[in-house]
Design a protein that fits this description.
It is a single chain. By secondary structure, the protein is α+β, with helices and mostly antiparallel strands. Helices cover 23% and strands 32% of the residues. The protein has helices at residues 12-18, 41-61, 113-124, 176-179; strands at 2-3, 26-29, 32-36, 64-67, 71-74, 77-79, 83-86, 97-98, 103-108, 132-137, 143-148, 154-159, 164-167, 172-175. Strands 4-7-9-10-11-12 form a six-stranded mixed sheet, sandwiched between helices. A three-stranded antiparallel sheet has the order 1-3-2, with no helix packed on it. A three-stranded mixed sheet has the order 6-5-8, covered by helices on one side. Helix 3 (113-124) links the parallel strand 9 and strand 10 (132-137). The longest helix has 21 residues, at 41-61.
Length: 190
């Protein structure tokens, strides 16, 4: 989730020096810093369920998998996806960020869905190594995957209850119910 009252402007180099000293994470987009707010428990559960399912399979492939606290560089901008996988050797020893991800996952919330579907997808698809962009709905069971096709084409694959979600870039399949296991959808306890 993102909270942006009046983001300050700075250079990418200034951001990279400044951000590690902050108590919370900030994305950097078009010269502006954007504070990352905490998500809901279902949001966190969805990201962790997918991470837990993928982790043992990814390690066997020599890929790196991270959740929430690893930023991705897109030209001079920096984003924090909910889950990111890099199978590129150039990221094998990365410490601060990935530059060559093959799969990026965003968990949708009502406040971030438009940005995740629009602005972020526009940025992410400029990454030449990105093969799949995954959107997981945090309010109802549904996973959407955009897969790189030929040229500039991205193919859309929606998954619902009873489907097996295919992560073609990793050669892995996952029942959608595994991603949503023990996740409380549509329930608020405020």
């Amino acid at each position: 989730m993102i909270a942006t009252p009046d983001p300050p402007r700075m250079t990418a180099a200034d951001y990279l020096d400044w951000e590690p000293q902050q108590e919370i994470r900030y994305e950097f987009v078009n010269g502006r810093v954007i504070a990352m707010t905490g998500g809901t428990i279902p949001h966190n559960d969805l990201a962790l369920n997918l991470y837990s399912f993928l982790r043992p399979k990814i390690k066997k492939q020599g890929c790196r998998l991270n959740v929430a606290d690893v930023k991705v560089q897109i030209a001079d901008d920096y984003r924090y996806p909910d889950v990111v996988v890099s199978c590129d050797k150039r990221d094998s020893k990365a410490v601060e960020l990935y530059r060559y991800p093959s799969l990026i996952v965003e968990v949708l919330s009502p406040g971030t869905a438009a940005v995740d579907r629009g602005e972020k997808f526009n940025q992410y698809r400029s990454l030449e190594t990105l093969q799949e962009y995954v959107l997981i709905d945090s309010e109802k069971m549904g996973v959407e995957i955009y897969r790189r096709g030929e040229g500039r084409m991205w193919l859309y694959y929606p998954y619902v209850l009873g489907d097996t979600v295919r992560f073609d870039s990793l050669g892995i399949e996952c029942p959608i119910e595994t991603i949503y296991e023990d996740v409380q959808l549509g329930i608020t306890d405020r």
